[in-house]
Design a protein that fits this description.
Layout (H helix, E strand, L loop, with lengths): L1 H61 L21 E6 L9 H15 L3 E6 L1 H9 L6 E3 L8 H16 L5 E9 L5 E9 L25 H80 L1
Parallel strand pairs: 1-2, 1-4, 2-3
Antiparallel strand pairs: 4-5
Helix pairs in contact: 1-5, 4-5
Length: 299
């Protein structure tokens, strides 16, 4: 009876692992589909982002000494004192390996370096993490992180820029996850505002401007009108990039889960066959012993 009960338990365990494997396989396929779609959106986003950056570079090629509160002064690029704003982009759920923890670790490091930092959080995972540890959140964007759009990026950038323009925030950071290549990604903490002027430097091999551009009404007004669009594009790119990395991390996690399930099924099948063989051997032994006893009784 012990062997029979063991066989039943192993069979139930095998069925449970098989059902779990079906779920992880489905999650892998869903993540791969979302990743392809997100990569397409990212490919459509980056050209606009790079073109806008190129236009800002053109302004600095003509007027290198332009004064704007969106940039560090020419002779001073030290970090500013005061309150910082930090946008933290996480996922809505786990099951994505170390994706969420890496982004949160970057946020914790920023809080340790500059405690006077206001958090703006995208993603249910980040909201729950900071709430459970009583870390105050200045603003939580309650829409899902699964569907990044330009409209949401503009909403986020408008809120951050409003605080920056009013002087409430001296610097603005964005913590997101960047896909370095098709197989790897890393969490980054990037300062969005104010910019270093060297960020828009003209490469050494680029042709110099021989005829100055004409700016209407003036160069500062043109630059100040371009920066909000640039920040919106940057945040939109960070949202999509993070979403791509989330799906990539989930695919990796589900693939590992599938491999572990295969190994576990192999071990359980082997154990099931051994227990079953042992039970059959015992039954044969009992039948042989009974037949032998019957022959002896007749003799």
């Amino acid at each position: 009876m012990a062997e029979v009960a063991g066989t039943k338990e192993i069979k139930t365990r095998i069925q449970s692992v098989q059902e779990t494997k079906k779920i992880t396989s489905a999650m892998y396929l869903i993540a791969s589909t979302k990743l392809r779609k997100a990569r397409l959106e990212l490919d459509h986003t980056r050209p606009y982002f790079e073109a806008l950056r190129a236009e800002i570079k053109r302004i600095f090629r003509t007027a290198n000494d332009v004064d704007s509160h969106y940039f560090y002064p020419i002779d001073n690029d030290t970090p500013r004192k005061g309150t910082y704003a930090c946008l933290v982009i996480t996922a809505d759920k786990g099951l994505a390996g170390s994706y969420n923890q890496n982004a949160i670790r970057q946020a914790q490091q920023l809080l340790e370096w500059h405690p006077d930092t206001k958090l703006f959080v995208v993603g249910e995972y980040g909201r729950r993490f900071f709430a459970m540890r009583n870390i105050p959140i200045e603003h939580s964007f309650l829409y899902t992180a699964q569907n990044p759009t330009m409209a949401r990026a503009r909403e986020i950038s408008a809120l951050l820029l409003d605080g920056f323009d009013k002087g409430e925030f001296k610097e603005i950071f964005v913590i997101y996850t960047d896909m370095t290549n098709a197989m790897s990604f890393e969490a980054r903490s990037a300062r969005v505002l104010p910019f270093h002027r060297t960020y828009f430097d003209t490469p050494a091999g680029e042709r110099a401007v021989t005829e100055p551009f004409e700016f209407v009404p003036d160069v500062r007004a043109v630059l100040d009108s371009m920066i909000p669009s640039y920040v919106s594009g940057y945040i939109y790119s960070a949202l999509i990039d993070s979403f791509c990395c989330e799906q990539n991390a989930r695919m990796t996690a589900m693939d590992s889960a599938n491999q572990n399930a295969e190994e576990l099924l192999g071990e359980l099948s082997l154990k099931f066959n051994r227990v079953r063989q042992s039970a059959i051997t015992q039954e044969i032994t009992e039948v042989s012993a009974g037949a032998r006893a019957q022959r002896r009784r007749k003799e």
